[in-house]
Amino acid sequence: MKKVLISALLGLTFACTSxxxxxxxxxxxxxxxxEFMDEQTKELTGFDMELIAAVAKAMGDDVKVQNMxxxxxxxxxxxxxxxxxxxxxxxxxxxxxxxxxxxPYYQSGLVILVKKTDLDKVKDLxxxxxxxxxxxxxxxxxxxxKHVKDAKVTEFNSITEAFxxxxxxxxxxxxxxxPVVDYYLVRRADDTVTTLPQVFDxxxxxxxxxxxxxxxxxxxxxxxxxxxxxxxxxxxxxxxFGANK
Length: 245
Ligand code: GLN
Fold this sequence. Notes:
Layout: H1 2-19, E1 22-27, E2 30-31, E3 35-37, E4 44-45, H2 47-58, E5 62-67, H3 73-78, E6 84-85, H4 93-98, E7 99-101, E8 106-115, E9 132-136, H5 140-146, E10 152-156, H6 159-167, E11 173-177, H7 178-188, E12 193-195, E13 200-205, E14 208-210, H8 214-229, H9 232-241
Parallel strand pairs: 1-5, 1-6, 9-10, 9-11
Antiparallel strand pairs: 2-3, 3-4, 7-14, 8-11, 8-12, 8-13
This protein binds glutamine.
Glutamine is lined by residues 28, 31, 70, 87-90, 136, 139-140, 159, 177.
């Protein structure tokens, strides 16, 4: 009888352990080439999706990805709905007060996207004073837009909607991450828009975890290190950005 109970308990422990082998990842999948839906396979894909899967694999875990609004990611970490964000999330001082981050895994920056027909009037951030600026809700692009004097800022749930609004002349500019804007320009072949030459501030993306979850940060950093050392990071980088890092 005792034996049965012990093996039942062992079975339970085993079940719990294998359960813990799933890394619950939160993302916001309108952000190509980092996270987006592959139209053909209907699967989430992109640099972040492949990188976090490789990191999890290096740690012996599977991933389960949940797609949600960008502004829902930090609350979902805090309530334990997800273990980690993989969402091109910039490590900012404000966010560091609320969550912890892994080592940076990608260097980015912000750019301003405008209509080519406006290039004579809009040359820099200052010339957006008093104008309408579009951005994605809760992002560093939206934060920068709000610092422009008298600018009217419209925040959209997805960056796709912000791009659309610019196309339809609903705003003068979109402020967003450079690699995402570059990808949009190449893929969508929208030749009515272009970026201003200046790239703002180096921004670093990190995977976010619940504040104080030191074990998870260490585990992810160890996975990231393995993935860098094995050459997997370079392979994924090369696939999405076409250059070695
Ligand atoms: N890197 C930007 C930020 O962290 C945008 C991220 C995103 O929209 N997914 O705010």
